[in-house]
Amino acid sequence: MVDTTTTRIKYRPATELVYFDNSDGQGPKDSYNAASMPIYQTATFKQTSSTQMGEYDYSRSGNPTRSHVENHLAKIMAAKRAFAVNSGMTALDVITRMVKAGEEVIAGNDLYGGTNRLLSFLATHNNVKTHHIDTTNSETIIPYLSEKTRLVLLETPTNPLMKIADIPRISEIVHERCPNALVVVDNTMMSPYLQKPLELGADIVYHSGTKYLSGHHDLMAGVVAVKDDAIAEKIYFTINATGVGLSPFDCWLLMRGIKTLAVRMDRQQASAIQIADFLQSHNFKVHYPGLKTHPQYELHAKMSRGPGAVLSFETGNVDLSEKLVELTRLWGISVSFGCVNSLISMPCRMSHASIPAAVRAERAMPEDLIRLCVGIEDVDDLLEDLYHALTASGSLKLAN
Ligand SMILES: Cc1ncc(COP(=O)(O)O)c(C=O)c1O
Ligand SMILES: N[C@@H](CCSC[C@H](N)C(=O)O)C(=O)O
């Protein structure tokens, strides 16, 4: 396959993730031609004079290991530029610093608890109001758009109810009515392997690199990717000014994780599909865009290459859910997702506990919800362990 816009050969997604060299002239070159970009563990760089500096002067401002992973991220995210920062929340923080007091944000009403917390903080401390709306219906956004709107923030699929937003349609509506507003997509659930929001109309994409990109729960990282130079300059300014760029060692770990993203995600997703089918066959209410019964199955399939490896389900009873979670052995009780190990959690008590209970109730977030993040273990072991916990907790009887 040849990309006619550049001379670079465009490979298929799994190849793009693992293939990188500097033969196209992009990015820093290691002088020894190391097969893996070394960790440039240095804070500062020598200059030949006070007025002449090389490509780098200080690692807060730039570092070859960071440039290497950022160039690779830009390629796999279909971005003009990408930036590696020290967590997913930092990525969002850097983006929201473009919003001035008095301007507004529009975001979903089902979204990661930490995102909700940061947006609430902006409202209290910076006079930046967020309207939380149902992003599953694109037209819902129209009455909230105004000359004050600066960011429209979408999670799709959402964490934890796996709801889908129509990125192309919402981007079209926003760009038509509010030329100053930017559509921002949190693509953490999907990873760039499954979905590329910049190709679908979004202006900015961010990720918690702590999840699928790194894949092993051994680092915290965040990524911001953009397709416009002026926005890239603003993002870079904030990262340098506040000193939140990812450290060289973490950049190296992130790069190492990205190389195996396709194989991990293919395996995790295939198992997640089986597990979602299993739970649905036992009459649980399952939230997963890989099920044909998901109300936005087709929309999600149009925008992405797959449903991913996170799903949630309801038992109908909080105490039962609690028992079930504790009775699993192979599924670790942890927040986070995207790791090679399978995890189980109760979002209302864990990842989304920072959203006040009254707000969770208002947004119809089921307190008994269990979230499963499927890893790379043998799916039969995962199913057996789940079956054991379902039976021992009495949940299976209830659902049947
Ligand atoms: C969807 C989503 N976005 C962003 C974040 C924030 O990422 P991090 O924990 O790397 O700050 C998380 C989880 O923490 C998340 O689930
Ligand atoms: N105590 C943490 C919880 C992190 S949740 C991590 C992840 N996004 C998930 O959805 O599991 C906090 O309050 O931020």
Quick description:
This protein has helices spanning 13-18, 64-76, 88-96, 113-126, 167-177, 191-194, 229-242, 248-259, 261-281, 297-303, 318-327, 357-362, 379-393, 395-399, and strands spanning 81-85, 104-108, 129-133, 149-155, 182-186, 204-208, 222-226, 285-287, 310-314, 332-333, 343-345, 370-373. By secondary structure, it is an alpha/beta fold. The longest helix is centred in the last third of the chain and has 21 residues, at 261-281.
Structural summary, described in words:
α2 packs parallel to α8 (248-259) and α11 (318-327) crosses α13 (379-393). The protein is an alpha/beta fold and 400 residues long. A seven-stranded mixed sheet has the order 1-7-6-5-4-2-3, sandwiched between helices. The model is unreliable at 1-5 (pLDDT under 50). The chain is globular and about 75 Å long. It has two domains: 13-259, Aspartate Aminotransferase, domain 2, CATH 3.40.640; 262-399, Aspartate Aminotransferase, domain 1 (Alpha-Beta Complex). The chain starts with 12 loop residues before the first helix and ends with a helix. 48% of the residues are buried. It has helices at residues 13-18, 64-76, 88-96, 113-126, 167-177, 191-194, 229-242, 248-259, 261-281, 297-303, 318-327, 357-362, 379-393, 395-399; strands at 81-85, 104-108, 129-133, 149-155, 182-186, 204-208, 222-226, 285-287, 310-314, 332-333, 343-345, 370-373. The protein has 14 helices and twelve strands. The ligand N[C@@H](CCSC[C@H](N)C(=O)O)C(=O)O binds at residues 112, 114, 159, 335-337, 351, 354. The ligand N[C@@H](CCSC[C@H](N)C(=O)O)C(=O)O is lined by residues 112, 114, 159, 335-337, 351, 354.
